[in-house]
Amino acid sequence: MIVLDGISAMMRAMSRPASMRTSLFVSILLYSHKHREDLVSQLKLTPELIGLIADRFKALSEPARLQILNTLRGGEKTVNELVDATGLGQANVSKHLQSLFAAGFVRRRKEGLFTYYALADRTVFRLCDIMCGRLEQELASHRKVLAGRG
After folding, report:
1. How far is the C-alpha of 86 from the C-alpha of 76, rounded, in Å?
2. Residue 31: pLDDT over 80
3. pLDDT digits over 73-123, tens only?
């Protein structure tokens, strides 16, 4: 039942604009992970769906974008505030914000001369937590191997 609900939600998401799909995809994947179900194996992974998922992960594959997302954990910021907080150049921050916005990871609002950016959805950090957990497991495994050499 949970898997079918997830599949229905995924199919409904396909008809939404790209910027609105990300939160739903991430939520479904995280819900699936939390409940120890492999939703992706239950879906028919069409080339279109694979492309959509890959695009979201592509947006997260740049370290500067992860740094920007991490900075936005503290609340919305202007481009200049993000430049100061990250040490990245203004053009670089603007370029990465465009990618994050297009992928639906950040939202923006204009106020006077300034554009404020904020996280569109905090669930992206659950993906980071999953990856960090995986990295910790790999590190523990490498430590065991190295300990055996000594």
Report:
1. 14
2. no
3. 999 999 999 999 999 999 999 999 999 999 999 999 999 999 999 999 999
Spatial separation of the C-alpha atoms in residues 9 and 6, rounded to whole Å: 5
User: What does each C-alpha distance from 51 to 30, 48, 96 come to in angstroms?
Assistant: 19, 5, 20
Tokens 């949970």 sit at which residue?
2
Q: Residue 105: name the closest of 69, 51, 78, 64 by CA.
A: 69
Number of C-beta neighbours around residue 137 at 10 A: 10
Confidence of residue 7 (pLDDT cuts 50, 70, 90): very low
Asked whether the beta carbons of 118 and 72 are under 8 A apart, the reply is yes
Structure tokens belonging to residue 27: 């939520």
Distance CA 47, CA 84 (A): 40
Q: Rounded CA gap, 138 and 145, in Å?
A: 11
> Rounded mean pLDDT of the chain?
81
Amino acid, res. 47: P
Q: CA 59 to CA 103: how far, in whole Å?
A: 7
